[in-house]
Amino acid sequence: MKSPRGSLARLLCLGLALMLGVTAFLTSAAEAQQPERRRNLLDMLFGSRQPVYVPPQDAQRPREGKTRKKTNGSVTTIKTRQPSTRAAAAPPPPPPKLDNAKKVLVVGDFVAAALADGLETAFEDAPGVQVQTRANGSSGLVRDDFYDWPAQLPALVEEIKPSVIVIQIGANDRQQLVTATGRLDFRTDEWFTAYGERVANLATLAAASQVPVVWVGLPAFRPQNMTADALRLNTIYRSSIEKVNGEFVDVWEGFVDQEGRFIVTGSDINGQPVRLRGNDGIGFTGPGKRKLAFYVEKSVRRYLGDMTSPDLVRLDASNLPDLVSLPPSENRGITTTPPIDLFDPELDGADELLGGTLPPSSSFPTPRDQLVQNGRMPDPPVGRVDYVKRPAEPATSTAAPPATATP
Predict the structure, then answer these.
(1) What is residue 338's predicted lDDT score, i.e. its pLDDT?
(2) Helices in 256-307 by DSSP H: which ranges?
(3) How far apart are CA 54 and CA 179, in angstroms?
(4) Which of 6, 296, 301, 349 has the most beta carbons within 10 angstroms of its beta carbon?
(5) How far apart are CA 104 and CA 329, in angstroms?
(6) What is the torsional sign of CA 300, 301, 304, 309?
(7) Which stretches does UniProt call biased (Polar residues) (predicted)?
(8) What is the CATH number of the domain that holds 115?
């Protein structure tokens, strides 16, 4: 008969062994799923091997430069620009200006300053053209007490000696005008009459310098009343400069849309959409300045001619071409002769070509001498197209035939 205590002890041992087996199985499974874990009470009592972390092999690196974004059930791929490890090559510096470069004088207000920046970009590769900017951003023709352009322009022309004068002014003139008779309000007939006289005075002074004058009209602006006033002022500028045989350049179409409304973003000189105007709708961006100058540089190039070519170079002792490229040992015995005109040697101070002698005129009379002396031109050479003389026929014999012997 078995003892109940022995059966209970065997059951306890079996249960403990079963619990240890389950614990060891769970521990090994957890170690396989995660590389590291905290030690529990069973590990401290019965001990456990320390797991070793094995890094994954052949892990695929994520692609750089693309991010997938899911919005409203659709997946959108957003390309991000990665920083370039290769340093961008610096553009070559523009060529230096020539000492005899023709100068373009630009005068006016802040719009003229933007125009001058665009012209400098347009002619930066032309060593024969130099842009001189003498713009005053807050100036105009109304406040002559602030800056008197009719008094300053002749002095600037005398100082710079330009080949072309470019004028763009009037953006600051939308204000009251003070004359000897009193103050004139803007947009009145009296104001436009007095203002027209000042414009004509400045155009006459510019034309008196005997230099081509280009007057550039005002562009459109964001304020509608400012745009309407610019249209009215452009008519005054055009009529005044054409009376003194100057040229008026209209830039209006470059800064409005097809319906004539002001635009901030438009096409540049290459037809690409860019931002042309500043946030205030009055100033110009870099592409806007270049487009403003695009209308003017056509006239400037026409007046300056070949000096606008980028192929002009400065010849001095540093860049003269090597006229004799042979080594010194092979230059011995070379005889150099000055060039002689093949059609008229006497222009070079000589009477004959190199290596030839003139025959005496008595031995070889010219066709003119034969015509004067003999009254007839010499016969053309045989075989030439104008030789029409028939060849001589052979002479026939008239002698009696020899007598024959009779048998």
Answers:
(1) 64
(2) 286-304
(3) 93
(4) 296
(5) 51
(6) positive
(7) 72-85
(8) 3.40.50.1110
